[in-house]
Amino acid sequence: GQNIDQPTEMTATEGAIVQINCTYQTSGFNGLFWYQQHAGEAPTFLSYNVLDGLEEKGRFSSFLSRSKGYSYLLLKELQMKDSASYLCAGMDSNYQLIWGAGTKLIIKP
Amino acid sequence: IAGITQAPTSQILAAGRRMTLRCTQDMRHNAMYWYRQDLGLGLRLIHYSNTAGTTGKGEVPDGYSVSRANTDDFPLTLASAVPSQTSVYFCASSGSGTGGNEQFFGPGTRLTVL
Fold first, then answer.
1. Which pLDDT score is estimated for B37?
2. Which of A43, A45, B17, B50 could form a disulfide with B102 if both were Cys (CB 3.0 to 4.6 A apart)?
3. Min distance B99 CA to chain A CA atoms (Å)
């Protein structure tokens, strides 16, 4: 079966660094996406990885290891506005996204 | 319009009633999707369309139907609503149904079926 696993909730301090992990099992693999979703709002795209390694985009970075079926999202210099849910999604062989339940990130001052 | 719009924003519906959720995009994207999002679960794909005139079933299609008469519009119809269809519904679009194209999401429709 297809499955995406990520922690339900994480807490971090403003200004710190947090890493949100995601493991995936998909039928075929066409990349790994991360989205941010603030409460009551739509998901918005953060990153896409299809090759192994780290992709850096400002304060956010995303890592992929295809051999381990593993990805993480790294958020640096946390700000209060980063309080949101972070959704991991794997794209399968039919180019459909399989979504994790999301990780709710709570930022404390 | 800029991006994707959905209507209505929210709706309370009696069980057994028919309901159409509307979705319109102005980005000339080929692919469009309907998802439902329930607490504690990931987004689940209901139906999709890779191009105008074609549709396909996703993970949870039962009780829902879609049409794609043109590029911009992708309505989702609940023929006879049931309480288990209470959810937040998101429409999304991407440039193509293949490849690593990001999906852009509409603001969502919160549907309650009583």
1. 98
2. A45
3. 7
CB of B1 less than 8 A from some CB of A: no
Instruction: Report how far residue B114's alpha carbon sits from residue B111's, in angstroms, rounded to the nearest whole number.
Output: 10
**Residues of chain A contacting residue B108, judged by C-beta atoms under 8 Å apart:** 41-42
Q: Which of A23, A29, A96 would you mutate first to test chain B, the one with the most B CBs within 10 A?
A: A96
Helix residue ranges per DSSP H, chain B: none
pLDDT 10s digits, B29-63: 999 999 999 998 989 999 999 999 999 999 999 99
**A103: its two tokens:** 């990780």
Sheet holding B4-7, edge to edge: B4-7, B19-25, B76-78, B64-66
Percent share of chain A, pLDDT over 70: 100
| CA distance from start to end of chain B | 32
Residues in CB range of B39: below 8 A, 6 or more apart: none
Residue of B35, B26, B1, B4 whose CA lies nearest to B104: B4
Q: What is the pLDDT of residues A46-87, one digit of tens each?
A: 999 999 999 999 999 999 999 999 999 999 999 999 999 999
Rounded to 5°, angle at Cα B31 from B88 and A40: 25
Yes or no, beta carbons of A42 and B90 under 8 Å apart: yes
